[in-house]
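Give me the 3D structure for Chitobiase/beta-hexosaminidase C-terminal domain-containing protein.
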Amino acid sequence: MKKLLAVLTCLAMLLALAVPVAMAGKSTDKTAPVTTASPLGGTFASAVTVTLTVNEPATTYYTTDGTTPTTGSPVYTAPLTISSTKTLKYFSKDTAGNLETVKSQTYTIGTPTSTHATLTWTGYAMCSSCHTSQAQAMYQSVHYQWKGSAAEMTTGPATQGKIDATDGSSALNAYCINIQGNWGPCGACHAGTGAKPVATGNPSAAQLASIDCLMCHADATNAPYSRVRNATTGLFEPAAGLDMNLVVQKAGQKPTRKNCLGCHAKAGGGDAVKRGDIALASGTTSDVLYDTHMAMGSGGNIQCQGCHTYTSHRVAGRGTDLRPEDSTVEVSCATSLCHSTKTSLTTSHTTYDTSHHVGRVACQACHLPTYAKNANDTANTEATETHRNWQVGEWNATLNRYEPTPTKANDLLPKYAFWNGTSWGNNAFDAAALDAATGAYKISRPVGAINDPVGTKLFPFKYKTSSQALANGKLVTLSTATFFATGNYDQAVKDGLVYMGLPSTTPYTTVTTDELQLLNHQIPPATGNVLACTDCHGTTTRVNLPALGYALKAAESVVCVQCHSQRTNKGWASVHSGHVGSRMIDCSMCHNFSRATERNLKIGIM
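Predicted structure for Chitobiase/beta-hexosaminidase C-terminal domain-containing protein (606 residues):
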């Protein structure tokens, strides 16, 4: 009996020990995972990419044929592209075996004719009532807010833009200076119905309804859309005589060049005035010498978003004079679709001497000999403004207002400067900065230098000047509203002084301001039109390379004898080809910069 009791006791002890061990191998997680779809279901004019995310490690199963998914269904591994109307059903199973309840989202995909064909115009709110997620994205974009992240600015606050503000974030330029006091005319190009945008993380339905989607998505060819401002309400409304039912029935396609150019070509007060390389002709011409990329016929007929890609209504691309950054996506000439072979420092072009420019010279620097060209199949001139004189007003019958006197020109040579992707800019209320090199007060500049890291390149720019008022060491945000109405420069300056918090009697002088604006368009075909080596090297007619940092670091008598005795200089082509092309000698042996690492060049005595 004692032996039996001992055996039972041992068994009991073993069972007691075994239970905790067995329990320790089981999970106490009883909570199902949560899977979220982005974007949520809705109506989309074109294919939509849907991402499924889970709040914990789990496997997600899905179907798109309407059936209920099981653990035998396809496993989600990458974003799904839905190009036709489908119902997406999905659930996740976590590592503990917990199963989520099946969720469902329906994505209605259709062309404008199929989704809009029976629409009747009821007002601007009808767009955002169906396309809510798109409206929310647009509301937060730079196109709507006219300001955004200033991550690529070396001056000013974290958020900047052209919208007038008293926090120092409001950009100045050499055109209308600043839009303070003149929201009406300036807001005509704003993609809203008339009210100033109000930044908010969660816009209301009323705020979303103030977006004018038709400015970008109207069919500019088959159902053109235009608008006028109501003098009583200050809000925009469709122009008289438009069949707005037809406009909304045809609306919804991706913007064409005509949509984009309606604002961008006319920036600054008229066609081709501001950018220098963009005009209304860019949307209609077949002249490849004017712009081989956008020209129709034998040209590329590339739409704007072919380069300026969009993600959730955020557009890629930014000029050096623009303060906000809408998207971190970089625009590049060398993509899988365009010029994919033009990235090599040794084989991208027919000769090594040309290929090695790729690392430090932007494509358009060589491929844009002149800008502000006239298209050969348009009646109007595409001349751009090079100077604006606010001291002398002239009546503009087209705009029905006074304008500062402009100076315009065609067929201009670009200015050249290094750009590392960031910019310097002068904003409202900033201290004015005199540029000793130009003798003018600078408004915007590309940031970059010859010794910057890889990625900094030589780019072509439009050079623009203006006469503006200066008081208390700051450029005056002149009241454009006063000037446009009266042509009175003195009163416009005084109203601007009051806006800046200064007495209207504050003394002021008129000075010259200037800025550099990046040039990207109006590229002609390469054959017969690209710059020759002698256009830049051995002359200062087009570009002063020594002033940009390419000068010798000392006299030839000092530089040359590092390696050999003094010899006759046979010219830059012979010297450069013999030292760099043949012997792979680094630039630093003769100049104050190096390309040794990026081009595998040698530093030292030959």
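Residues 2-24 form the longest helix (23 residues). Let me know if you want a second pass.
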